[in-house]
Automatic annotation (TrEMBL):
Keywords: Cytoplasm, Methyltransferase, S-adenosyl-L-methionine, Transferase, tRNA processing. Residues 4-231 form the tRNA methyltransferase TRMD/TRM10-type domain. Its main location: cytoplasm. This is tRNA (guanine-N(1)-)-methyltransferase. It comes from Raineyella antarctica. It is found in: Cytoplasm. Specifically methylates guanosine-37 in various tRNAs.
Length: 241
């Protein structure tokens, strides 16, 4: 499982929330080390410059290769290289399957780009010594990789054995195995009547077979309405109608 996570960013303050909640507890319990580094620590000029204009022209700025090269030299142990994760809207989609894969890796290093991205030679050079994964959270644009890394770290850390008290809560939810790749059904708690709205009576019936059948139907209805792409996908539920 993951033992250490390094994060390099020009905005290390973005990662204060990692001290809270689930990730903070995993770190406090000694299950995991998370270290956040300021990319500008690997600059040498007075202005601590990390970007420059793009070769070939065009809008925006590109992150210079030298600070990234020095950061990776300093943080990567060649005997135990990490998986280098580079968040970018032009990456492959980040999925629960990737979160599971990474939860088994001893070391992860997240490299947060800003501006129009990182000089591509940084990833090309890194690929000669470690696995590099350029990944995207979805089809929209964030200003930098920081928010994406917060999401990915949380998705990975909650899968580390011992981090979540009740591992059963992991198997039932959306995208987990045992759900046939369907979205989760709606959930209810007390009171049974609230603002004139009733909890579906089947959930109060005590008939577990009926409850399971109802939840399955709700999952299918939701998936058809919200994520029809999941039903078309290979490995999705056979009897989707
Ligand atoms: Cl991973 N990074 C950035 N900068 N924007 C994104 C993204 C990642 N995923 C979606 N938009």
């Amino acid at each position: 499982p993951v033992q250490r996570i390094d994060i390099v960013s020009i905005f290390p303050e973005y990662f204060a929330p990692l001290g809270l909640s689930l990730v903070g507890k995993a770190v406090a319990s000694g299950l995991l080390a998370v270290d956040v580094h300021d990319l500008r620590d690997w600059t040498h000029d007075r202005h601590r410059t990390v970007d420059d204009t793009p070769y070939g022209g065009g809008a925006g700025m590109v992150m210079k290769p030298e600070p990234w090269g020095e950061a990776l030299d300093a943080l990567v142990d060649p005997e135990q290289p990490p998986v280098l994760v580079v968040p970018t809207p032009s990456g492959v989609p980040f999925t629960q399957a990737l979160a599971h894969e990474w939860a088994h890796e001893p070391r992860l290093l997240f490299a947060c780009g800003r501006y129009e991205g990182i000089d591509a030679r940084v990833m090309d050079h890194a690929r000669t010594r470690m696995q590099v994964r350029e990944v995207s959270l979805g089809d929209y644009v964030l200003n930098g990789g920081e928010v994406a890394v917060l999401a990915m770290v949380e998705a990975v850390v909650r899968l580390i054995p011992g981090v979540i008290g009740n591992p059963e809560s992991l198997v039932e939810e959306s995208y987990a195995e045992g759900q046939d790749g369907l979205l989760e059904y709606p959930v209810y708690t007390k009171p049974a009547s609230w603002r004139g709205l009733e909890v579906p009576p089947v959930l109060l019936s005590g008939d577990h077979g009926k409850v399971d059948a109802w939840r399955r139907e709700q999952s299918l209805d939701r998936t058809r309405a919200r994520r029809p792409d999941l039903l078309a996908a290979e490995g999705a539920v056979a009897d989707a109608s």
